[in-house]
Predict the 3D structure of the following.
Amino acid sequence: MQIMMDVAASGTKLPFGNNVLTAVLGYGVVFLGLMMLMGIVYVMGTIFKAKTNRLEPLKVAKLPTVGSQSPQKLKEPQGEPAPGTAGEVKLYGVPDKEAAMIMAIVASQMGKPLNELRFKSIKEVKEDEV
């Protein structure tokens, strides 16, 4: 005795074995597609991990320490400035560290090396002075 199933689209009856074979092949195609997608995601992950590891910054060696010399004991530069420097900068109410950051930012925004720019003075402007 053969078991028959109804197929809604065509209206014909198919044997039970054909229905099982169709279902198994359908599931197989879906799982094969999922495995291929999993493989693609895995390969892309290894590519991005390798790219991230390659872009990590190099480890910087420790700079030698100055020792017990205090800033007061350091000598003032003598003679002419080195080639490419722009002389001295007068600072009005601005610490040296902030002045250096301002000069670096200006050089970066202008796209020029710092030694090609000349800063005459840097003054802090308060809001009530504007």
Remarks:
- The radius of gyration is 37 Å.
- The first helix runs from residue 16 to 55.
- Helices lie at 16-55, 96-110.
